[in-house]
Amino acid sequence: MAENGRLADLEKQKLLLQDHEEKHFTSSEVVRDIIIGVSDGLTVPFALAAGLSGADVSSSIILVAGIAEVAAGAISMGLGGYLAAKSEEDHYNRELKREQDEIIRVPDIEAAECAEILAQYGVESHEYEPVVNALRRNPQAWLDFMMKFELGLEKPNPMRALWSALTIAVSYVVGGMVPLMPYVAIPIADRAVMASVVITLVALLIFGYVKGRFTGNQPFNSALQTALIGAIASAAAYSIAKLVRA
């Protein structure tokens, strides 16, 4: 009877899990890469174009310099994202090897650490002892448990470095072309820079708002903060160019 009751409970739990769908956002790394790429792409070429406009050069020169900067910036930012992701992967693999060796060499110490982790979650000794014993019988599960709960490390996606590089680079290009668009249509730099300021500040406000929604910050504060940073950067570049030219 007891066995039948336990099986019935398990079936009930399975049905509950099938009916229950949790909506969690699980693409935080991709969003982070997009934020990095777009924010720098909007800000750096914007400041460069404003600075060159302050130096009284033609729109064509600003456009060529801006496109060159976007290309170089995308490559640089993408490479930086690739190296950062590869560093995380290498760190995980080193710690995985070290933890694997410790499970083999000093299993009792590792079991004690496992018990200590469970105790931190309020699990009593008579409750966690069967769990620890079950993990010891399954070395791979034990290793995964220690990596996640002792070291706080998640196994990285082997394609993470490449996708990070591509995401950041493409996002940088998309963001970088926004402040340069007016220089394509308007040959007079003084007029083009005003259009660039308006378009880019609107783009920064929208981007900042969306970023705030995804990151859990206040969207309006995020929008104003992002636009303010871009405005300060472009104003500084424009003023410095005017001072140098004078």
TrEMBL record:
Membrane-spanning intervals of the chain: 61-85, 161-186, 192-210, 222-241
Membrane topology: Multi-pass membrane protein
GO BP term (any one): intracellular manganese ion homeostasis
Record bears the keyword Membrane: yes
Catalytic activity annotation: Fe(2+)(in) = Fe(2+)(out)
Gene Ontology MF annotations: iron ion sequestering activity; iron ion transmembrane transporter activity; manganese ion transmembrane transporter activity; metal ion binding
KW Cytoplasm (keyword) present: no
Domain of life: Eukaryota
InterPro entries assigned to the protein according to its UniProt record, in alphabetical order: Ccc1_fam
Gene Ontology CC entries for this record: vacuolar membrane
Pfam families: VIT1
Keyword tags: Ion transport, Iron, Iron transport, Membrane, Metal-binding, Transmembrane, Transmembrane helix, Transport, Vacuole
PANTHER family linked to this entry: FE(2+)/MN(2+) TRANSPORTER PCL1
Domain commentary: The cytoplasmic metal binding domain (MBD) is located between transmembrane 2 (TM2) and transmembrane 3 (TM3).
Summary of subunit composition and partner proteins: Homodimer.
Protein family membership: Belongs to the CCC1 family.
Function statement: Vacuolar Fe(2+) uptake transporter.
Name the record gives this protein: Vacuolar iron transporter
Organism: Trapa incisa
